[in-house]
Amino acid sequence: MTNYETYRVNFEKEVHPLVKEMEKYAEEQFVPIMDRIGIETFIGLLSIQNPATLLEIGSAIGYSAIRLAQANPELHIATIERDEERHAKAVHYIERAKLNERISLFKDDALTFDTTLLPYDCFDACFIDAAKGQYKRFFDKYEPLVKTGGIIYCDNMFMHGLVFLEDQDIPRRSRTMIRNLKAFTEWIMENPAYETSLLPVGDGILIARKNS
Question: Residue 71, annotated ligand binder?
């Protein structure tokens, strides 16, 4: 742990037993979920924005959707997950959290998903946390569903530090993904249609506000 992480643990709030169970499962089964610092920062950001609706690309086991819904009692979430096993786990955990009425879960590939099936035509916020090499494609498809003034959040922008490496130092199997992620980051940061910030929190959180 860094000095900051060691210090902030002193102020960490107790989480619901179900959340602890999900964190343990994710660690044991190597399911990628937001770390504590990242999710708590995201919860704080949403408390400032106070959206009524959020679209999530990449449910995994439902961890972030449950955490966000628990922290924002008025928030309604639509979330998409393509992996059958993770989707089943998300269904299980969402039911146990008694959040079925506020979390709509879809099993599909987000890149080919029929958006007319979503419960809302427009969303106040969108959270992209799926295949990192496809962020630009996810953004292009779902950005039109975000209201003007709405915010698009993207997690894992640092990809565990790989984006800081020179191309030749990145493992060969990850190079295309990291190139795509870097290209997306450069594109969105320079795009005047969005007010964009990149936060060095967790594994890197990008915040893009859709301008009028």
Answer: no
